[in-house]
Amino acid sequence: MTVLRGAFVVLRPTVREDIPALAAIRATPEVRARWRGGDDLGAEMAREFDDPDNRWLTVEHRDRTVGMIQWYAEEEPDYRHAGIDLFLDPAAHGRGLGTDAVRTLARHLVDVHGHHRLVIDPAADNAAAIRCYTKVGFRPVGVMRQYERGADGTWHDGLLMDLLAAELVRRP
Known about the structure:
There is one protein chain. The protein is α+β, with helices and mostly antiparallel strands. It is 28% helix and 33% strand. Helix 1 (19-26) packs across helix 3 (41-49) and helix 4 (97-111) crosses helix 5.
């Protein structure tokens, strides 16, 4: 994976040395509420890092690690598509960095990997994430009821969103 450059962010392949900074971001209450994790996020992420199916990119802004964006691909020819997920340091929220990161990766997945469709699945109550993804061209498909278990042990709805290649908003 090459380094991807957006208007505000740089997306570069995550290396093991990034794990402490990324784990610290995941440990913030705002991110942990959505991404959860055990008591030792660094060790957990290190184990996940070794999974060859993981496609992690560290999100940098002004040479500072501000988050991580990941993607996966469904390669079955009749269902081929890619999915995206990300987290950002709450201190970086509200500046368009998430939108730029999603747009930059989406452009790469469409233009370089040839995906005609992308999906993303924020929590249904995550209005900020939904606004971010909508700015890139993602559209709601439907609510996935009781989609994921929250840290409180109860089930929470998710929103399935997708984007077709022609719908990608390439510029802010």
